Task: inverse folding
């Protein structure tokens, strides 16, 4: 039996395949694609992070599943992929932000922190005896009266977005953002847009108890998580909007059927 072409090239992180690929890094990206959907949206007055926690058992305590973390007063992060890897990176990010505060007596920049985390990730793609981190982070915060949103990759790559998603539902999320995102969006509308994008990935299983939302407001430069009651209020707006759309669609279908029946009767 002939061996698959990549056999032998995916055994170690330090070995390139003949076509220039690092298979272990690509496998780490697959781990992210299988993770829960995480979303980030920039607004003119802040930035918001949203995560669908995907609770698989009614016996689980929803509060024990944490996918959005506070890194510093003005920075938060959302994760998708291997949760244990994400927690290690979050701890690293917290240490880096405190080192910056002690060394320079000022809060760390969002882009500086994102680059430091990506530098750390990249080292785990370069040396033998280690594996890449199987997680991606959305790092969001405010600095110099500007909201920032960065997406980090298991390879250590870094991109800044106006709105993006990671995890299992990324394709559907990006489709919603491409269609509906505007540069002048307000924070409240950004939360609703993020929930709209999450709704498109949940296949009808849309519940406030499984959704986590974190925001950083430009005015006070403080990261906070929304309470379950606040999240429920936003979720109800989305559910009501979709129920109205379904009712309208049903009425239009009924009218078209009636018209078709009348035309058939006349003939």
Result:
């Amino acid at each position: 039996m002939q061996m698959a072409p990549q056999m032998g090239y995916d055994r170690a992180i330090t070995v390139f395949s003949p076509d220039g690929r690092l298979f272990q890094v690509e496998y780490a990206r697959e781990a992210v694609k299988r993770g829960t959907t995480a979303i980030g949206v920039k607004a003119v007055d802040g930035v918001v992070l949203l995560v669908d926690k995907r609770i698989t058992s009614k016996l689980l305590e929803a509060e024990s599943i944490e996918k959005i973390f506070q890194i510093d007063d003005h920075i938060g992060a959302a994760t998708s992929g291997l949760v244990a890897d994400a927690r290690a990176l979050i701890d690293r990010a917290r240490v880096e932000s405190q080192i910056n505060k002690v060394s320079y007596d000022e809060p760390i920049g969002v882009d500086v922190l994102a680059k430091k985390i990506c530098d750390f990730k990249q080292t785990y793609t370069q040396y033998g005896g280690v594996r890449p981190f199987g997680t991606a982070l959305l790092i969001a915060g405010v600095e110099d009266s500007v909201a920032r949103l960065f997406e980090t990759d298991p390879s250590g790559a870094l991109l800044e977005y106006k709105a993006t998603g990671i995890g299992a539902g990324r394709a559907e999320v990006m489709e919603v953002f491409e269609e509906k995102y505007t540069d002048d969006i307000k924070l409240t509308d950004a939360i609703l847009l993020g929930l709209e994008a999450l709704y498109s990935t949940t296949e009808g299983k849309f519940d406030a108890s499984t959704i986590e939302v974190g925001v950083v407001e430009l005015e006070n430069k403080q990261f906070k998580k929304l309470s379950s009651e606040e999240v429920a209020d936003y979720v109800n707006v989305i559910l009501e909007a979709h129920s109205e759309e379904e009712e309208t669609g049903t009425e239009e279908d009924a009218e078209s059927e009636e018209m078709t029946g009348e035309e058939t009767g006349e003939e």
